[in-house]
Specification:
The complex is a heterotrimer of chains A (1017), B (457) and C (178).
Chain A: H1 7-10, H2 16-32, H3 34-43, H4 48-54, H5 57-77, E1 104-112, E2 115-124, E3 127-133, H6 146-156, E4 164-166, E5 169-171, H7 173-189, E6 195-199, H8 205-217, E7 222-225, H9 233-242, E8 247-250, E9 257-261, H10 272-281, E10 294-299, H11 304-307, E11 311-314, H12 319-330, H13 344-359, E12 364-368, H14 374-386, E13 394-397, H15 407-419, E14 425-429, H16 433-436, H17 443-447, E15 452-457, H18 462-466, E16 469-472, E17 481-484, E18 490-493, H19 506-513, H20 521-532, H21 538-548, E19 588-594, H22 608-612, E20 620-621, E21 626-628, H23 630-636, E22 640-642, E23 650-661, E24 664-672, E25 680-684, E26 714-731, E27 746-748, H24 749-754, H25 763-766, E28 783-788, H26 797-805, H27 813-817, E29 826-832, E30 839-845, H28 854-858, E31 864-866, E32 872-874, H29 884-887, E33 895-896, E34 925-926, H30 932-944, H31 957-961, E35 967-971, H32 978-983, E36 988-990, E37 1001-1004, E38 1006-1008, H33 1012-1015
Parallel strand pairs in A: 6-7, 6-14, 9-10, 9-12, 10-11, 14-15, 15-16, 19-25, 21-24, 27-38, 28-37
Antiparallel strand pairs in A: 1-2, 2-3, 4-5, 4-16, 8-13, 17-18, 19-26, 20-26, 21-25, 22-23, 23-24, 23-26, 28-35, 29-30, 31-32, 33-34, 36-37
Helix pairs in contact in A: 2-5, 6-26, 8-19, 9-14, 12-14
Chain B: H1 22-34, H2 40-66, H3 81-92, H4 94-105, H5 115-135, H6 162-195, H7 199-209, H8 216-249, H9 261-287, H10 296-327, H11 330-341, H12 345-357, H13 365-368, H14 371-398, H15 413-436, H16 442-456
Helix pairs in contact in B: 1-16, 2-15, 3-5, 3-9, 3-14, 4-5, 4-8, 4-9, 5-6, 5-15, 6-7, 6-8, 8-9, 9-10, 9-14, 10-11, 11-12, 12-14
Chain C: E1 6-13, H1 16-28, E2 34-37, H2 45-48, H3 56-82, H4 95-121, E3 145-150, H5 158-167, E4 172-177
Antiparallel strand pairs in C: 1-3, 1-4, 2-3
Helix pairs in contact in C: 3-4
Classes of the chains: A alpha/beta (1017), B mainly alpha (457), C alpha+beta (178).
Amino acid sequence: MSNGMDPAGLLGIGQQSAGGREYWRSLEELAGTEAFKDLIGNHLPRHAAAFTSAMDRREFLTLMGASLALAGISGCLSPAPAPPDEKIVPYVNQPEALVPGKPLYFATAIPVEGYGRGVLVESHMGRPTKVEGNPQHPASLGATDAVTQASVLELYDPDRSRVITNAGRVATWDAFFSALNVELESQRVTQGAGLRILTETVTSPTLAAQLQEILRIFPKAKWHQFDGGGGDYAHQGARMAFGQPFETLYRLEEADVIVSLDADFLLRSPASLRYAREFINRRRIPGGSDEANRLYMIESTFSLTGSNADHRLAIAPSAIPQLARTLAARVSVQISAEQPAISPAQEKWLGALVKDLQAHRGRSAIMPGEYQPAIVHALAHAMNDALGNIGKTVFYTDPVAVNPTNHAESFRELVRDLEENAAQVLIILGGNPAYTAPAELDFAGHLVTSNFNVHLSLYEDETSAVCHWHIPQAHYLESWSDVRAYDGTVTIMQPLIAPLYGGRTAHEILAAVAGQAERASYEIVHDYWRGQNKAKNFDAAWRTALHDGFIAGSALSPRNVKAKPATSFETSEPKRASSGAATKNPPSLEVIYRPDPSIIDGRFANNGWLQELPKPLTKLTWDNAVLMSPATATRLGLTYRVGGSGGEHGTIYADVVELEYDGRRTRGPAWIVAGHADDCVTIHLGYGRRRAGRVGTNLGFNANILRTLDTLWHGASIAVRKTGAQYALACTQFHHLMEGRDLVRAGTIEQYRKNPKFLIERESEKEAPGTLYPGYKYDGYAWGMSIDVNACIGCNACVAACHAENNGPVVGKQEVLRGREMHWIRIDRYHRGEPNNPETYHQPVPCMQCENAPCELVCPVGATTHSQDGLNDMVYNRCVGTRYCSNNCPYKVRRFNFFLYSDFKTESLKPLRNPDVTVRSRGVMEKCTYCVQRINQAKIAAEKEDRVVRDGEIEPACQQACPTRAIIFGNINDPQSRVTQLKTQPLSYGLLTELNTRPRTTYQAKLRNPNPEIENG
Amino acid sequence: MASKPSDPGGDALPLLEPGHTFGSITDKISSIVLTGRTPLFWYISFGIGFTLVLVLLFCITALVSVGVGLFGVMIPVAWGFAIVNFVWWIGIGHAGTLISAILLLLRQKWRQSINRFAEAMTLFAVACAGIFPLIHLGRPWFFYWLFPYPSTMGVQPQFRSPLVWDVFAVSTYFTVSLLFWFLGLIPDLATLRDRATRRMPRFIYGMLAMGWRGSAIHWHRYEMAYLLLAGLATPLVVSVHTVVSFDFAVALVPGWHSTIFPPYFVAGAIYSGFAMVLTIAIPLRRLYGLEDFITLRHLKNMAIVMLATGMIVAYGYLMETFMAWYSGDLFEKYMMMNRMFGPYGWMYWILILFNILIPQALWIRRLQTKPWVLFLIAIAVNIGMWLERYVIVVVSLHRDFMPSAWGMYSGTVFDYGVLVGTIGLFVALLFLFIRLLPMISIFEMRELVHEEEGRSQ
Amino acid sequence: MAKLPIYGLMAEFDSPEALLEAARRAFAAGFRKIDAYSPFPVDGLAEAIGFHHTRVPLIVLIGGIIGCLGGFYLQYWVAVIDYPINIGGRPFNSWPSFIPVTFELTILIASLFAFFGVLALNRLPMPYHPVFNVERFQLASRNRFFLCIEAVDRNFEPERTRRFLDEIGSLGTYEVES
């Protein structure tokens, strides 16, 4: 290919496959040389994992860069048949528009637990630096979640696996493929009777086609699925109710009353971003109507969704199916089983709820939680049917996941085959079953029986360690692939950069299994869709799909369904662990397992950004804990101690408990959560990793040791003993009371209807405090922000986005313990009301950009000053680090580099940085700047076009990421701008305005919509 | 030679034990310096001090090379030990200039035997204090950005910041104290020059004396200049701690933002300063047998000054509490409750005990002249005043406006290391001074003798 | 001036009173180039030998004025003229905030003027001075008092002056070599 100047070439994509091959050939040559053997020899005798961390990255990357360049040249010069020229298509500008220093945006999708979310990736000179939501993608609507934001760090993670290993020794792709072929040959004889393929949830049409192909070649081979994080009860429930594993979709904008049966739909759902937006759109008061939807939450642990509910009923997990049954009966679902009596309090609660539901037939939605047993799902479907919601607020489509199966059973079967030595060749595509699978199965132990197994993954993790072969996987930002969103919409994923560490995709491995080792994933995906496309000009369609980031109209269409009579299934008891009757001594409790809010099932354990992200409700970082209600803690005699240094904002010493389930034991710190159901404990998965990488290894404790396949999410009678030991947990906000200060102003919609200004009629607002000084005149732009506390669900997306955009450093647990985390925006969490069922408020707090900034006044060197358009600027170069500004900041939003936090050494992290933002050094103060780099880019662009910056043209990272559009930024000098509109709303108030700081960031008060029957009872 | 009713606080205690002549005084005081052999306790005390100086140097090296994070400071408590120690030392540094300047203007004869080492103490205390603002910076190597100078960056200090006021106040205070002290030394250096037997000391003292020969005209100008310097130093000494108090009063942190701070800081400074003078004078007069010159009369007067300033400080505490209640301000009220009953409450009550209750013993006349009682009280006050600064700096910061940002602070080994290190530096410098320079102003003692004779004739 | 054999004649006394008396009589006798030396300041001694007022206060005043005006202008120039920046919405010329530094600089400059002023007026440092040639003079910094009539005095005449000094109670009269 002769286009040396082709941006695709610049992006290092044009010669991807050639580059890859060239590169690995060079490493093979290297592998031959003495020098390389010595390198391994010196750095580590046997262990390949250590190899990745000990190898000199600098040398490695230079080598790689050089070989890629060579590849380019050879690509241009070699007479050999050139590889397919893989063009990737930028989102907005055409490649021709590539200007050094100006980013390009490419549309792709991030697959999380199988389901895709459309994203736009910002690319600086071929380096993906930031992931944003794709506004046109149904599952994103322009928003992202914390995981998506942090995925770019995963791409550059220096701990990602870089080499193929065979029994811990470095090997080569050729060696692997030849070994694989030998095994496959022997399998051909038996029609693949011994061939097993283990994947996570698969939604990729191409991958599905490839699997079909392989099952055609090897009729006796088996495809197993096991997904550490996700469950599959939803499909089973649908099967119960409809006879088919339908996918359930909700249109929450149409729902006036939402009942969540432990469904954490604001955080833990492939559609969470969309649901969050729809849910909040019905609560935007004022602006629209003064009508809002009402959310009833029935759950055991305290979930993010629960914290946003108008009414919450916290009950033990075993009671939820029971309550679902009762509720179903009340909404006139045919229930034969007799109804157990429930407490008067619950009776009253339920009564009000049922009345509300009956009053909103067809405008309500019952949402079963994905971790609830199938019966709960089935009952929910029946209720939605009975309430006439189906087709209005609830929709059903064919399953998005390919061939939905009961993961638990599927995995159990695989282990059985391994036991019986029926599975000789095992190919594990992604996932980390050796860690995520319940320990009772001893998956790792059984692996050894098979005579060939290979693990494709990003990291050399627990599974890789016990597999014969480990082969590095290409990150999604390095891969050609495709994926379906929650509603079936297909995105064709395009790589942003050639595989940094020469990883391959699942497509390429499966192709090899199908005997086409030479096919690159681009070919595979491209050819598959060419096959699907009946239209004339496929290339145009392909371009459009890549450009838009999804294939228009590929969403699955709703099906007309009719639920079977509930009597047909409602008696079938959900499977429950029957282990040990509840004993009193040691106190035995029910246990709830949930994926960690930040690192899910541990797949992001080595991601520093996510580890340091305070978990939404506990505000814990770097650890998981045994969550329990205050009452339960008292019963177990568990307590905590505030650390002398950093305590309240840093160190909390928690009592360590020993957990025992079916004779398997582990220990972990106990954490008291207001609003948790009594007599049960919640444990988050994903911790206790042993081979996660230098960040994630040996953090927290591993709950999978306790889990069994029957009790993946809920278990009865776990024994909890106090050990007497204490453990230091890093908690960024321990004090959850407002101490009578109106930092978050909250009321009910009822009060608002009576008097819209009821929350802001206070002295400080009545007359502005006088001043001797004439105020500054800000003609031209005056940037301001309005944050809607009512819309904030506390999901952390803004925090992660801010960190990614502004090159935020990771300080590590020790520093968080001292109260030195570096987030420019934090989400304050306050509780109000009784501890067993509190009201919860989430309040994002960035810099207020005060017009009378107290911080500026006291800086002795003028390192923080005011800009023309009223920004509170921070001049890093001028800062000497007196920290006086932080003392004098009433909002405490300034962050200080007590040590050299930014990583200036690690080569692979350098391309990650946002080139428009200074990487701060030791001893300087830093803070939110309203993303001044974006502001200036927009201003420059506007000046070039001789116009003013349009409203909404500038979106700070936090606003851009926010799923609920809770953050609005703009020019407050422009009366038409949205931010000005919002600031004139009757619910708009400033934080601590009595100090006369004149903050530019203001808030919209929180309005709850409680059911008067429950509230006033 | 009983003192005359003209004496302030007129009572039987003499300023100078009888029987001294110009010669005897001169010999007695200068011999401490010029004698060949150094007493053992000097080696011990200096040795201890010097060891701690090494600790100080180690800590500073670590801080500069690794980062200020070695201190316990965090968000929200971004100021810790460093600032506490700074204010504490500056406060101690107030007695010297006060004694020499203000008492001079008030014609208090009893200052004369204590002013010299009180001034020296001031210099050393300020020197110790000066270390802290420097090393607590994030980037100490840029400290000079706080001074105005022709900068290529074209940026100058931000003069609205109390920290800049601090820089000017403290450096001015140090300079003026140094001039004042050295001016006072010149005639005594001349004495040492003339009395030194060996060549080297003779030469060095000679150079330092700059050829002073006690000419009447020189004395005339000298006294005028000395008086004027005293006149200048007096408002200065008041201004310094006022400015230091601005560091807090100007900020809007509850517990800092208070108009009573300047007077109450100044009183506190004098309070702790006198406590430190007593802490030093009482052992020294015993060790060097100077009871004749530093008499019980001096101790008594200092005790009374301590009592008086102590009461002002007590009034300060009372007012803070009252204002917190009277203002009705939510944050102020919470701050005060937290100060008394919060996690750091015990500190508050200890400081009340040490600063207010224990010194009340000074009402008892008998105790005013019991050196060891005074010594113990002085120690208590030194500790109490340190705690006071800790309570003001740390306890106000750790829970201010937003409960979400509250945190706890505690010093690290480096915090303590630097504190004891500066104490060591102080001790070391003090003993060097005692060994090398007359710790009592000889010529002023001669004047005293002359006057006493005048009275007795 | 013309090189003289000696610098002058020096008389020793043992008390400030004696010295003061002697100085008065010497001045009365018409001697003008005289100086008295004492181990501590003696009231009225300088007046006795005809030295009445000093310029030290004036110097200090000048220093103070320079410090005050210079100090304020420095801040005004920085904040308003050289590089005006919007600091926390405060006006460029926030004069109340400029008072402390102005005050400190006033004191500083005035004190420096006082210290170096007095040294200059006293012509110090001056490590060598003829009076040091007198053996006994080193007692001038201990407990002895001296009166010196310099040879440059127009009434100076070695023998007569020596006799005069003995008359006014000198305990010992010495020649001061120049």
